[in-house]
């Protein structure tokens, strides 16, 4: 049986880094409205938002499930290491990025307006993911 990684099990330094990085992402990329770091098990670690969101816990749970499902799918089609999923909707985009930390795997979620510069948000998500994945407790 595997143990779940809840925010209570995480090092304080990782939570603080997560808080810092999601706020930076929200502040530094125009048209990002919501950013969240959650555990691979679907628990919220850190959130930064410009809009009221009442279902943050559900977003965390569903995001981790989507990453797991897509990772299984890409494995079946002989691709490796699902990194970022981009969902393009009529009224915006959702981006989910896997963070392959050896002890604390996580998911970074960003919700944006349609006008977001996709290259910019992808670059920032990758840089943020790499920084969090290097966290050493």
Structural notes for this entry:
By secondary structure, this protein is of the alpha+beta class. The chain is built from three helices and five strands, in the order H-E-E-H-E-E-E-H. It has helices at 12-28, 56-76, 118-133; strands at 32-39, 44-49, 84-89, 92-99, 106-112. The chain has a five-stranded antiparallel β-sheet, sandwiched between helices. Strand 3 (84-89) and strand 4 form a beta hairpin. Helix 1 (12-28) packs antiparallel against helix 3 (118-133). The radius of gyration is 14 Å and the shape is globular.
State the major sheet. Answer: 5 strands, antiparallel
Estimated radius of gyration: 14 Å
Percent of residues in helical segments?
25-40%
Percentage of residues in DSSP E strands: 25-35%
SS-derived structural category: alpha+beta
Tell me the number of strands.
5
Which spans of ≥5 residues are poorly predicted at pLDDT below 50?
Answer: none
Biggest sheet strand line-up: 2-1-5-4-3
Mean pLDDT, to the nearest integer, reads 92
**How far is the N terminus from the C terminus?**
24 Å
Inertia-based shape:
globular
Count of helix runs: 3
The H/E string reads HEEHEEEH
Topology:
Layout: H1 12-28, E1 32-39, E2 44-49, H2 56-76, E3 84-89, E4 92-99, E5 106-112, H3 118-133
Antiparallel strand pairs: 1-2, 1-5, 3-4, 4-5
Helix pairs in contact: 1-3
């Amino acid at each position: 049986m595997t143990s779940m990684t809840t925010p209570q099990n995480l090092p304080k330094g990782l939570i603080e880094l997560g808080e810092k990085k999601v706020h930076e992402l929200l502040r530094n990329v125009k048209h990002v409205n919501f950013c969240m770091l959650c555990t691979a098990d679907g628990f919220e670690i850190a959130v930064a938002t410009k809009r009221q969101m009442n279902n943050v816990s559900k977003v965390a749970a569903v995001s981790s499930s989507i990453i797991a499902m897509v990772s299984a799918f890409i494995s079946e089609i002989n691709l490796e290491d699902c990194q970022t999923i981009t969902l393009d909707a009529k009224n915006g985009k959702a981006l989910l990025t896997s963070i392959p930390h050896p002890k604390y795997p996580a998911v970074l979620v960003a919700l944006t307006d349609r006008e977001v510069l996709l290259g910019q948000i992808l670059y920032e998500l990758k840089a943020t993911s790499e920084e969090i994945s290097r966290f050493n407790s």
